[in-house]
Amino acid sequence: MEYRNKLVLAPMVRVGTLPFRMLAAHYGADITYGEEIIDHKIIKCERRVNDVLGTTDILEKGTDNVVFRTCPEERNRVVFQMGTSDAMRALKAAEIVYVFHSKSSCAMKHFLYSLLQFGRDEGRDVSDILWIMDTTDVCLKCKDVAAVDINMGCPKSFSISGGMGAALLSKPELIHDILTTLRRNLDVPVTCKIRLLKSPQDTVELARRIEKTGVSALAVHGRKVPDRPRDPAKWNEIADVAAALSIPVIANGDVFEYEDFQRIRDETGASSVMVARGAIWNASIFSSEGKIPWEDVKREYVRKSILWDNDIRSTKHTLKEMIAHYYSLGLPEGLAVIKSETSADLAKLYGLEEYYEYVSESRRK
Ligand SMILES: Cc1cc2nc3c(=O)[nH]c(=O)nc-3n(C[C@H](O)[C@H](O)[C@H](O)COP(=O)(O)O)c2cc1C
């Protein structure tokens, strides 16, 4: 995957599931990160091809609980982000998510991807295409994700106490071990996402060590571990990292408008830009044609959640995050989302009953 000059959807727990990633891509995101999933959780999972949805699902063993769901349309841009504190466990987990069968690139695969994408965009029945992909073993068993990323920035206590997230920032040998192990054994790019350290010199020193592991890119969240989201991101300290490295640096922090993509690039010299909250509040931030009304974006999100049969708790959580930026959740819309128990309830709330029926009917066929 190419990391230069890209607009990137940041990893976001409980938000960055398949429908939100597809939403961001729909508006122009080039690379979309999944939510962080802990390696301990993944190694208790199994992969299953979901013939009804045309997805690959990573499920808790022996259950239908989806831990990670992806589809062929996002295969060239989805990044699987993992939380880990151990190289071998990280590799074991990555190998469950990522399956690679052959190094030869397959022209047929690309052709079928395009057909599938076109069919879905046009609202056509794509079951035949999925069938061909499945039976010819062309597509569904190749690489399922475009890259694997390690979260080295999470400051939450569950991460730190498990030696993961920002706890790794003070353990450069462990960082080296994890990244080199993944790099040597996986045939997709390996990257990581860090926060700033106490001093710019410390951050640059760590970034240089990370670069030496052979990672394809480094995402830098321009805040320090004790910083809160309301504290301004320090773009000048991301600039220090970008100036010191040859690999692409992905700048992250306080991008809220399309124009900010260029501003942060100019101020940091970073190749690419990653956005989290700005995308929750209006995912059309990625569109060069300007934002569309967030009400429309929200409805499109519900539509995609229905299409990809998203876990209702994740859909509700994301909707609440979207709404809370604009209105109190104590107002009627927020209360109705909180009360919703099924996708059918949400479909009704957002006037998507017909679409819900259509999708449910096609699944029954
Ligand atoms: C709801 C939410 C969930 C997040 N989950 C993750 C995560 O799973 N992994 C991660 O590396 N960072 C996570 N972050 C941090 C963001 O990826 C990003 O670094 C941070 O929000 C700064 O970007 P922003 O200023 O564009 O919001 C999360 C942030 C938010 C708001």
From TrEMBL:
MF terms from GO for this chain are: flavin adenine dinucleotide binding; tRNA dihydrouridine synthase activity
* Record flagged with keyword Ribosomal protein: no
Give the InterPro entries listed for this entry: Aldolase_TIM, DUS-like_FMN-bd, DUS_fam, tRNA-DUS-like, tRNA_hU_synthase_CS
Q: Which PROSITE patterns match?
A: UPF0034
Which function does this protein serve?
A: Catalyzes the synthesis of dihydrouridine, a modified base found in the D-loop of most tRNAs.
Which segments constitute the DUS-like FMN-binding domain? 144-302
* Keyword field contains Nucleotide-binding: yes
- Which classification does the entry list for the species? Eukaryota, Viridiplantae, Streptophyta, Embryophyta, Tracheophyta
Cross-referenced SUPFAM superfamilies: FMN-linked oxidoreductases
> Which CDD domains does the annotation name?
DUS_like_FMN
List residues binding FMN. K193, H221, A276, R277
In terms of Gene3D superfamilies, this protein maps to:
Aldolase class I
Q: Which family does it belong to?
A: Belongs to the dus family.
Tell me which GO cellular component terms the UniProt record holds: cytoplasm
Q: What's this protein's name?
A: tRNA-dihydrouridine synthase
| Known EC number | 1.3.1.-
Q: Which residues of this protein are catalytic?
A: C154 (proton donor)
Top-level EC class, please?
oxidoreductase
Q: Which domain of life is it from?
A: Eukaryota
Question: What cofactor does this one take?
Answer: FMN
What keywords sit in the KW lines? Flavoprotein, FMN, Nucleotide-binding, Oxidoreductase, tRNA processing
